[in-house]
Amino acid sequence: MMSQTFEDLGFSKVDIDREVRTGFPEIIYGEGKTKEHILKIMNKLIDAHGKALATRVSEEKASFILANCPNAHYDPVSRILTYGKALKRYKGKVLVLCAGTSDLPVAEEAVQTAIWLGCETDKIYDVGVAGIDRLLAFRKEIVKASVLIVVAGMEGALASVVAGMVKRPVIAVPTSVGYGAHLEGLTTFLSMLTSCASGLSVVNIDNGFGAAYQAASILKLVTEEGSE
Predict the structure, then answer these.
(1) Which of 100, 125, 133, 146 could lock onto 92 through a cystine, CB 3.0 to 4.6 A?
(2) Distances in Å between the alpha carbon of 217 and those of 10, 52, 114, 169, 172?
(3) Among candidates 100, 96, 45, 82, which has minimal Cα distance to 212?
(4) Pairing of strands 147-152, 170-174
(5) Counting Cβ atoms within 10 Å, is residue 63 exposed (0-12), middle (13-18) or buried (19+)?
(6) Residue 9 to residue 41: CA distance in whole angstroms
(7) Torsions phi, psi for 70 (to 5 deg)
């Protein structure tokens, strides 16, 4: 069954109209879906948009999809699978910072998503507050960014520090990296939510994708208003 807004595959109703409504096409959440389902959804999105992105794709699923869709690309750190790229590039730059090397999978999810959505993206890794000189060494790069995504586990202090350094939107991503009382990211999440730093927003635990989507939406708006 084909409608104007979605295509019904039985197991999935592919929202081919989403890019018209929201500015970005539907993106596949790969966890919990079979490799066959991901491939079929991807093919429909590629037919409609010439591009597709799937998050949380395991290496085993990716191998199957790449064998059937050889022009796709898989990044094993972020577990992001992409096909094609954005035709539009947005003004400004997204800067992704992470506190520690253990946060890299979430940070890379943000990086790979932001690039695919059309953002110029840079990254600065392993600059947590336990060695704050590492962060301050990149102050020039930090204050020049248009939107900042800060990925951190433990107590999540990096997000507050960065938000206190800049006059740009800061999107904080709590991660599930930490010891027992960290409660698999809940402590970080609550710490970021109760930050005293202004201009700080918080997405869900380990949600690098959500942070990148929000950053891209900001740059998209700036770009569109600047062209009017």
Answers:
(1) 146
(2) 31, 17, 10, 12, 16
(3) 96
(4) parallel
(5) exposed
(6) 8
(7) -65, -15
Name the token pair of 226. Answer: 């600047």
What tokens appear for 97 in the block?
A: 């910072």
**Which residue's structure tokens are 């992409």?**
82
Residues in the chain: 228
Residue type, 175: T
216 in helix, strand or coil? helix
Bridge partners, residue 83, by sequence: 52
pLDDT in tens, 164-182: 999 999 999 999 999 999 9
Determine contact, residues 121/148, Cβ cutoff 8 Å. Answer: no
* 64-114 tens-digit pLDDT: 999 999 999 999 999 999 999 988 899 999 999 999 999 999 999 999 999
